[in-house]
Amino acid sequence: MSIELKFLGGARTVTGSKFTLKTKKASILTEFGLFQGHRRQAFELNTLLPDEILETDSMLLSHAHIDHAGNIPRLVAHGYENDIYATSATIDLARIMLLDSAEIQVRDAEYVNKKNAKKGEPLIEPLYSIEEAEASIKNLKPLEYHSTREVAAGIKATFYDAGHILGSAQILYEIDGLRILFTGDLGQPDLPVVRNPERVPSPDIIVCESTYGERNHPSLDEAKQRLSDILKSAYDRGAKILVPAFAVGRTQSLVLVMHQLMDEGRLPAMPIWIDSPLSLEATEVFKKHPECYDRETMEYLKRDEDPFGFFRLRYVQTVEESKSLNEVSGPCMIIASSGMCEGGRVVHHLKNTVADPKNLVIITGYQAEGTLGKRIVDGVKSVKLYGEEYPLNCGVEVLNEYSAHADRNDLIELFKGYDSKKVKEVFLVHGDYDQSRALGEAVNGLGYSSITIPDVGQSFEIG
User: Fold this and answer.
1) Inter-residue contact 135 to 72 (CB < 8 Å)
2) By mean pLDDT, which of 179-183, 248-252, 308-312, 370-374 is the weakest?
3) Looking at residues 347-364, what average pLDDT do you find?
4) Which CATH number applies to 3-215+404-462: 2.60.40.10, 2.40.50.320, 3.60.15.10, 3.40.30.10?
5) Which of these CATH numbers, 1.20.1740.10, 3.40.50.10890, 2.60.40.10, 3.40.1160.10, describes 220-402?
6) Beta strand extents in 222-371 (DSSP E only)
7) CA 115 – CA 51 distance, rounded (Å)
8) Contact call for residues 46 and 74 (beta carbons, < 8 A)
C-alpha cells in the first residue's frame, strides 16, 4: 500500500508540530501545535489551515504542551469534527492549557489592536476565543497506554509512555503490517515524577525528536547537588530567588526535587511560593493521575505524603497575594511562569528582582531565540519590562539539567536498541537543523542507512 508521510510543522524547528499520514483509504493528523516565535510570523503561520488537515479522519496527540496541542481550538472552530485521541492525563492537562492559551490569544490580539488602531492599520482577531477552546475539548477521546485502536480505516494506533510529561506518549501506527513510530517528545531517564520512556517494539519507520541532538545534560544527581549549592549561596546573602518555570512538568519536577532536598536536610529554611494559576491547576491534574508516576513519587503516596506540597511551600491563589510578594525581602524563592519569560506573572516579578545584584534568577529550561528568557541567558545589560528598561544586575544561573527532553546520549541509546538493518527509514524532527544533523551523523554511525531531516512542507512515500 502507498503511504504518504507529510511534515507540516515541527521540522527543523522545535514548535508547531503537525504531520499527516495518508493512504488510499484514510488519512491521520498527528498533533496540531502552535508555532511560537516573533508575534507577526507566529500569527501568520498559526492561521494556516490547509484542506489536507481539515480532511483527515482523526488526530492523535502525543502530549499537552502548546507546541503540540495549542492550535486544536482553531482547527475545531473551522469545522473539524473528528476524534482526537490522547491519554486521559493528556486530556486533563490539555483542557487547562488550551483555556490558558485562549486567554493569551485574546490578550495578544487586544495588545496588537491598540497599536494598530493608533497607526490606522487593520484590527486582528485572536487565533481562537476562550469559548472555542472550551468547545474543542469535546473532540478529545481517551486512548490509554498499550491499548490498540483502529483510528481510521486500515490504520491502528497504540500509545507507549514517552516519559516527557504527565500522560505523554509515543505513537505507534500500524498500516498493512508497516509499523511507524512517532516518538513525540521523549523524556530523559530518571526525570522526577514521570516514568522512564518505554521501548516501542520493532518499528519499521522512526520519526524521532532531536531537540538536544548534539548536547548532553549533566546527571540528575549532579543537578540536585548543584541546585542545593545555588540555593544555599543565595540564601546566605539574603537573595530573592526568581525561577521562571514552565507551568506543566517543570514546576512539578522542581517542587518534587526540593521536597527531596528538604527531606535530606539540604534545603535552606526560606519561604517558597509557586505563583502561577496554571501551575496550580496543573498540579491538581498531576495529583489526579498517580498511574503515571515513577517509583520515587509513588513512595510519597505510600507514606500518605503529598509529593507536590511540603512545609514552607505555598501556592499563590490571588492577584492580590501575588502583588504582595513585591514587599517580601529575601531570602525567599518564587517560582512563576512563563518559563521563557514571555508573559505571565514572572514578568511582574522580574521587574522587582533584576536590578538588585543581591538577587538571583535561575533559568531551568530551553529558551527559544527571540524570547526574553534567551536574552537573560545571553547576559544583556538591561531588559524591557512593561515598556521600561531595567538593569540586569542580579545573578543569573542556568540549570538545564532538569530538561524534560532526552539528550544526545539518550537518543543514541534509543537507536542502539533497534535493529538498524530492519528499520527502513529514520526522520529527525523537532530540533534546530544543527541539532538534527548532529544526531543524524551519530545514528548513521550505528548502521542506519536512510536518515532524513525533513523541511516543512515536504512529503515522502514510505513503506
Assistant:
1) no
2) 370-374
3) 96
4) 3.60.15.10
5) 3.40.50.10890
6) 240-244, 272-275, 313-315, 332-336, 360-363
7) 33
8) yes
